[in-house]
């Protein structure tokens, strides 16, 4: 399974092409649109979310509600593009029109300046348009397809925010994946502790009044994962490493950890390793899950627990100082639309990229021309690992 995304923030549409999805997977636009709506929701979102109401359109690879095995093409129309027809025109236009909304004041922490240097732009809008988090729309769409596949294999995935702008959210112990999913879905800030809901909302409101932004830490949990996904034989086949790369590729994400993560560096080995158990009913399990479902770069059958840290959004309504790329004079950075925080939306994106990598790994390991064949292969593997 492989995929590509294309499109600009204010271009006519966003596109994704996925190749390698088995034939026979039930799939409708509503399977995608639900996650696209989640990505646009959450407390603290800004004006762009009021303009767009993302809906996906299949143009290939799906017929009569099921995948055909051919490449799947998905499009999402940018409604806001109608206000940007000249600015985002693919055809050459007059110089006076080119100067409209031209960007020469790069924002600290964004791709504006470095992208302009790398690709030799005199208008940093070229950097801004593709590096915008609007691109994650299609990664969420791809992830929604992946989640449909995982669901057919009895795998469940959930996400929630565990740190909100430095405020740690107390998470009740031993919550199931289903419980995490249900609780986070009921929260406008995607947390599982309802007692902290209003506190976090008030904090976001204050940050917005200050013209500032906040980041935080998002956790994704996956249950029902088969044993032995990934491999220890080469560095690039370790599945936790592949997941880490995918998470850090999300806009504004700067770090990733599994299970105890960095906390493991403060503990003794006896306080970190997960003791192995076996029973006739469950096969091999672990007494704890400190390693987040991984040993040796491979899944061990425990739930995958992965966290990503998101920096504050670079665009500030009280902008930081920058330098004009034409005059090299100090200047306040350009202000585009921004949110005080996008953590709830980022958690949806993280869920999507984790699901995508897991789907890719499963389709690489098991026979998967069609869904029936894949389900039989996974069931056979699960029976083998249980009785090993």
Automatic annotation (TrEMBL):
Q: Name one Pfam family in it.
A: Chorismate_synt
Organism placement in taxonomy: Bacteria, Bacillati, Bacillota, Bacilli, Lactobacillales
Q: What does this protein do?
A: This reaction introduces a second double bond into the aromatic ring system.
> Which species does this protein come from?
Streptococcus mitis
Which cofactors does the annotated protein need, by name?
Answer: FMNH2
Q: Which gene encodes it?
A: aroC
**Family stated for the protein in its record:** Belongs to the chorismate synthase family.
Has keyword Amino-acid biosynthesis?
yes
Any one GO CC term of this protein is: cytosol
Q: This chain belongs to which protein, by name?
A: Chorismate synthase
The record's InterPro entries line, in alphabetical order, gives: Chorismate_synth (IPR000453), Chorismate_synth_AroC_sf (IPR035904), Chorismate_synthase_CS (IPR020541)
Q: In which pathway does it act?
A: Metabolic intermediate biosynthesis; chorismate biosynthesis; chorismate from D-erythrose 4-phosphate and phosphoenolpyruvate: step 7/7
Positions bound to NADP(+): 39, 45
> How does it associate, per the subunit comment?
Homotetramer.
